[in-house]
Design a protein that fits this description.
Blueprint (H helix, E strand, L loop, with lengths): L1 H38 L7 H23 L14 H36 L15 H27 L16
């Protein structure tokens, strides 16, 4: 199972780097819009649409990397002093809850995306269908669910074998990669 987790981690890190590029693009569009507005009456057409999509994609594509690298916010003040096996059981419980929550978010997000798609509404400036605003959520939740399931299986296997969990090792922006 470690091979799957490593492949998912590699994919998640590439997606997190793409998320950083999207945020940079959003900043550059905003700067261009401000500069154009200061020189004339019109800025970059559809700035709000572009910004919303870029930020949504960036935020939701980075979530799987946080799970797979162990870089998400965690409070381990009480659990780090517990025996290894108890820590692993608690980790399994947390991952199971995460999968359930992520799956529910994806399910309800898919329902809403379908409603938006069938309504046929679109944005005023660029004419984007509102349904595409749900795609980042669906992609991010699906990838995060898969990541948590893989981590769950890996942790369960280590618990079964009596092995400790490895320390988090990967960094999101690896300049050498």
């Amino acid at each position: 199972m470690t091979g799957l987790v490593e492949r998912l981690r590699s994919l998640a890190l590439r997606l997190a780097n793409a998320a950083q590029a999207l945020l940079l693009a959003a900043v550059l569009v905003t700067i261009a819009d401000i500069a154009l507005r200061s020189m004339s009456l019109s800025g970059v057409p559809g700035t709000v649409d572009l910004m919303q999509l870029a930020v949504m994609w960036a935020a939701l594509l980075a979530i799987p990397a946080a799970f797979l690298t162990g870089e998400h916010v965690a409070i381990d003040l009480f659990t780090k002093s517990l025996p290894m096996r108890v820590q692993q059981v608690l980790r399994l419980l947390g991952l199971a809850l995460a999968v359930a929550a992520l799956a529910l978010i994806a399910w309800y997000g898919a329902e809403q995306a379908w409603r938006e798609h069938t309504a046929g509404d679109s944005t005023q400036t660029l004419g984007f269908p509102f349904g595409i605003y749900w795609l980042p959520l669906l992609a991010g939740m699906a990838l995060s669910s898969l990541a948590c399931l893989a981590l769950f299986a890996e942790t369960l296997a280590r618990l079964w074998r009596g092995e400790p969990d490895p320390a988090p090792e990967a960094k999101l922006a690896d300049p050498g990669a």
